[in-house]
Amino acid sequence: MEEVTQKEEKKEKSENLIAILSYIGILFLIPLLVSKDNTFAKFHAKQGLVLFIAEIATSLIAWIPIIGWFIGVIAWIIWLILSIIGIINVVNGKQVPLPVIGKFAKKFKF
Questions:
Q1: Which of 23, 60, 61, 94 is deepest in the core (most CB within 10 A)?
Q2: CA distance readout (Å), 55 to 8, 64, 71, 96
Q3: How far apart are CA 78 and CA 47, in angstroms?
Q4: Can you give the pLDDT of all 110 residues of the chain as single tens digits?
């Protein structure tokens, strides 16, 4: 009996580690490819996808002199904070939509 709970605990930890990858740039693809049937990992991968798209858009905007640099720095700080919030949610086993981008993640169907 105790062995079963240890296996479940290890499985949960590995799923959490995979879900954490969702918030590290393009690594959001790993939970989508490895954990196709895991709704927890897919939830966080969708949010990671939206975050990644926002980061790419920020990179493009940051090329604009002066105003783009200012907007880019502010946006990167926001994306970093949202990534940290997402990772904290994964560690705590929560499926809470991230502020600002969570509503966009719900629109993805995969």
A1: 23
A2: 35, 15, 12, 20
A3: 14
A4: 555 566 666 667 778 889 999 999 999 999 989 888 889 999 999 999 999 999 999 999 999 999 999 999 999 999 999 999 999 999 999 999 999 998 999 888 87
Domain boundaries along the sequence of the chain: 2-104
Reduced to 3 states (helix: H, G, I; strand: E, B; else coil), residue 51 is: helix
CA dihedral 55, 59, 64, 68 (to 10 degrees): 40
53 contacts: CB under 8 Å, gap ≥ 6 = none
Structure tokens at 34: 């490895």
- Under 8 Å CB-to-CB from 44, ≥6 apart: which residues? 19, 20, 22, 23, 31, 86, 89, 90, 95
pTM (2 d.p.): 0.86
